[in-house]
Amino acid sequence: MFDYTVTTEHSTEETITRLKEELQKVSFGVLWEFDLAGKLDEKGLDFEGEYHILEVCNPKEAHRVLSAERRAGYFLPCKLAVFTENGQTKIGMPRPTALIALVEDEQLKQVAKEVEDQLLHVIDASK
Question: Of 107, 53, 97, which is closest to residue 75 (Cα–Cα)?
Answer without folding.
Answer: 97
